[in-house]
């Protein structure tokens, strides 16, 4: 697992180094991910340790959004200025999601009852 993490971090570091050296407008981790993709294509897929480590990271992906959520605090002024449109969008999308899920469940339940 440590070797696989070191591999992932090495590609991220390589991406950061390329970004800094070539003054690219693309974030270093994105470049590192592209390099990792090329490496995996050449190797014809990841080995078992990298597959296991990547799966573990994906299972805990929600924890990786904490720094991004904290970064939102930098834009608190803009969020305050646009609080009403954001609130309306959040409420509307939540209501639409609940209605869509409810209608889907209703139709699937009715379809299942008709099939029996």
Verbal overview:
By secondary structure, the chain is an all-alpha fold. The chain folds into two domains: 59 residues; 41 residues. Helix 1 crosses helix 2 and helix 1 packs across helix 3. The longest helix is centred in the last third of the chain and has 33 residues. The mean pLDDT is 88.
Succession of helices and strands: HHHHHH
Shape assignment = flat
Q: Would you tell me the structural class of the helices and strands?
A: mainly alpha
What's the number of structural domains?
A: 2
Q: Main sheet, how many strands, which sense, barrel?
A: none
User: Number of helical runs?
Assistant: 6
Beta-strand content: under 5%
Query: Roughly what is the average pLDDT, rounded to an integer?
Result: 88
Fraction of residues in H or I helices: over 70%
Report, as a whole number of angstroms, the end-to-end distance.
49 Å
Gyration radius, in Å: 22 Å
Number of strands: 0
Low-confidence stretches: none
